[in-house]
Amino acid sequence: MASGFVIHQQTGAAMADISISNGETFTLTDAQGHFSIPVDLQQYPFVFVNPPAGWRLQQPYYHQFSSPEDEDQPVIFRLAPDPTQTQKRPLRIAHVTDTHLGVAHLPHYVSPDDLAYDLDLVISQSQPDLLIVTGDLTDLGRLEDLQAYKQVIDQVPVPTVSLFAAHDATVEWLAAGDHRQTVHAYYLNTMGPDQYCFDWGPYHFILCPELHFEGQGSRVRQTRWFETALSRQPADKQIIIITHDPPRLYPEAARETYGPSLAQVARHPGVFLLLHGQYHCARILQAQGVTIVGLPSLSMGPNDTSPRSYALLELADNRVEIDLRPLKTQGQEQVAATTPPAIHANHLGKTWERQLPCNLHRAEAQAWQGRILLAAGDFGKPAHYGVWCLDQQTGEVRWHLPTDSVIKYGVALGDAAGDKPGAVAVAASVAGRLYGFNPADGALLWQTDLPTFPDRWLYSRPIVIDGRVCIANRTGHTALDLHTGEILWHYNRPRLADNADAANYLSPLAHTGKLIYLQTFPLSLVAVDLEFGDILWKKRLDWVDASLAGHAGRYPRYWLTEVTSPVLAGDLIVTPGIADRLAVVHAETAQTLWQEPALYADGPASGATTGRHYMASELAAGLVVHRDRIIASTANGYVYAIDLLSGRRIWQSKTSDAPLMDMVPYHRGKANLLSCPTIYQSSVLLGGSDGYLYQFDIADGKLLEKNFYGAPITVPPLVTDQGVGVFTFDGRAIWYQ
Predict the structure, then answer these.
(1) Does residue 41 have a pLDDT over 50?
(2) Quick one: which of 101, 145, 214, 663 has the fewest CB in 10 Å?
């Protein structure tokens, strides 16, 4: 039994009714500031104080027992008053996640110096009251990594809350040999308890670590502690949950349930905000009255090709304002947006420029009857999510359709059919809600929630064919009636739930009564009957080089977020393959015309160079077919022309190596191309993460011109009969005529 006192740091006075925990149960100090509570010296040798509002969370807020004799000594906790918590102003929280620090120099480790640099930038930009890091603090959880992380955090000039997650114990789990055990002694000995709670002003924070492997009672203990911590709070208390994994709405459908479910979280009426990491993807949404904020990685290129980023949250008057903010590549912080020049190579002059209150990332623009439809990106404020309509002649905003969460990959357009009135545009939110609306005025015609909404990570753009809206991703495919939104058929791969592995910017295509799409895990083309949704054929895009077979599982998991959708060339499907492969497949017979390592600059992928290809990524990030050739852009900054019928390379060209933002997963400072090539007259237009719009001669790949815009260009340029539109990551739309 542990016992001790809680006292005022400055006066030494006893503090009553202070919450004390042992990682499973709670007690309160008495009028003399005294407490006693049992401690399990074998499984969880901690006792810790949960600071009340107005008192500072600081080291040491816990005591770790080293022996049974240690229990005989009273534990003294000293709390210091924090007057900033009582000031009548919003609470400012900087939320970061997945810092993955490692002292070894490997591509997917982040050095202590880099992390210190990133946190200094976040603090200087956001001026927060509190910094929260939601897990995967280190990459492998080695003792030296955790010690280095703690040294960095101890230098942060604001109170900091760090959360334990799986990567913070990887080496211990591997060494244990039994993955039913939860072993994280390095973390506990370096950072202290892996779960705790505290008050800050009117808010109560509960930290729930990643519940990774069952066994040794850890999962039971952690779950019991979380439920007890939640139930102790009064019904009117405003509660913020800090986890690593997103809360599952349908945990029975998920193969990974490492954190509390949404049902557990929302059981208390006071829970209004949940912050998490894990997926290295941006997704902000509301579910069951809880605002759920998931972020890209702070320290390395995120999985969904967003830039490294953090969230600034301002809490006041039962409201939370969220501003998701990108970070520029280290050394590029002073680069500012520039006035876009004319495109001299084709005598195009700028006619207008419009600054939108949102960013623009990867979602293709659509032109419709003198209008331009744009889907807002994740960065900025969620109130600006949705679809924006600009006048093509003037750039004026005609309307804005707000959506529940961000539209990742653009809008589909359908025309009136038979006796159905008017055109219908359709957009799909990342949470799985489809919106049918009038493209003329943005009026909502219908909305439909796909199965398991909002527990989705839907990055696909729908298509419209024969009066139907079709959408597909790695988990399955769905068709809806274009004019009513009624679900006509739906197929979900058995026991497969959406998660970040589904965060692929892949859209289906249609060919003679078939829906065709690229499916991941394993990478395959799938053809579906449009009438009934039955799978007609599946074509697996295997490795050509047998020496890479052992890497086939990991490569697509981490890189297919960069891969583009397949495209049609008559009866042929041009599709990305594994690594640097392209494939051309007959749409009717599913026979392969060719499958070649066409997209490499310095040697095709082989067993000896797997490490380079695993991290460098030469996947097709953009595809377009022009007459007899394929134009492909790759994630590592090249553009190629490939003969359609033979796979023979015609030419290749290279863009810059100086990205403005880090968008290559698991990398810092690596340039890439995420924009699909656009054909304009006899040239190829292509935007880069370096802020340049490139123009290449389609015949020989010669660079005709490049113009600097001061922000990454990941949205493909829009070409119409009236001119060319260029769209930048920072939300600018520029029209040339």
Answers:
(1) yes
(2) 214
β-strand pairing of 514-519 with 387-391: unpaired
User: What is the spatial distance between Cα 699 and Cα 686, in angstroms, rounded to a whole number?
Assistant: 15
Q: What are 565-574's pLDDT values in tens digits?
A: 999 999 999 9
Confidence of residue 416 (pLDDT cuts 50, 70, 90): low
- In degrees and rounded to multiples of 5, residue 230 shows phi and psi of -70, -45
Pairing of strands 203-207, 196-200: antiparallel
pLDDT at 86: 75
Whole-number Å distance between alpha carbons of 11 and 14: 9
Average pLDDT over residues 62-70: 88
**If you average pLDDT over residues 625-654, what whole number do you get?**
93
Burial label for 381, CB within 10 Å (0-12, 13-18, 19+), is: middle
On the question of pLDDT at 106 being above 60, the answer is: yes
Q: Which two tokens stand for residue 530?
A: 């449009």
Token pair, residue 512, equals 């003679």
**Percent helix, percent strand, percent coil in the chain, to nearest 5:** 15, 35, 50
Rounded distance, CA 555 to CA 541, Å? 13
- Pairing mode, if any, of strands 203-207 and 238-242? parallel
404 touches 429 (CB < 8 A): yes
For 707, the enclosing helix (H) or strand (E) is strand 703-708
CB 566 within 8 A of CB 573: yes
172 phi, psi to nearest 5 deg: -75, -40
Structure-token pair, residue 622:
């953009």
CB neighbour list of residue 550: distance below 8 Å, 6 or more residues apart:
none
The vertex-382 CA angle with 379 and 388, nearest 5°, equals: 85
* The pLDDT value given to residue 560: 66
Is the four-CA dihedral 707, 709, 712, 715 of positive or negative sign? negative
Whose CA is closest to 401, among 369, 439, 368? Answer: 439
Where do we find the tokens 């290295």?
280
**151-171 b/e (C-beta count within 10 Å ≥ 16 → b):** ebbeebebbbbbbbbbbbbbb
Between 112-126 and 143-154, two packed helices, what is the crossing angle to 10 degrees? 30
**Tens digits of residue pLDDT in 462-518:** 999 999 999 999 889 999 999 999 999 999 988 777 777 778 899 999 999 999 999
161: phi then psi, degrees, rounded to nearest 5: -115, 120
What pLDDT does 176 receive?
Answer: 75
Range 602-614 average pLDDT: 47
pLDDT at 712: 95
pLDDT tens string 138-157 = 999 999 999 999 999 999 99
**Which among 466, 471, 455 is positioned nearest to 411, based on CA atoms?**
471
How far is 244 from 430, CA to CA, in rounded Å? 19
Cα 453 to Cα 471: distance, rounded to the nearest angstrom: 14
Q: Within 13 A of 200's CA, how many CA atoms are on the CB side?
A: 22
Structure tokens at 579: 């690594």
How many CB atoms are closer than 10 A to CB 7?
Answer: 19
Distances 114 to 101, 151, 331, 669 between C-alpha atoms, Å: 9, 13, 12, 12
Which has the closest alpha carbon to 388: 376, 403, 396? 376
List of residues 6+ apart from 547 with CB closer than 8 A: 606, 607, 608, 610
Rounded to whole angstroms, the Cα distance separating 524 from 575 reads 10
Q: Which residues of 86-105 are buried (b: 16+ CB within 10 A; e: fewer)?
A: eeeebbbbbbbbbbbbbbee
What is the separation of C-alpha 655 from the centre of its chain, rounded to a whole number of angstroms? 26
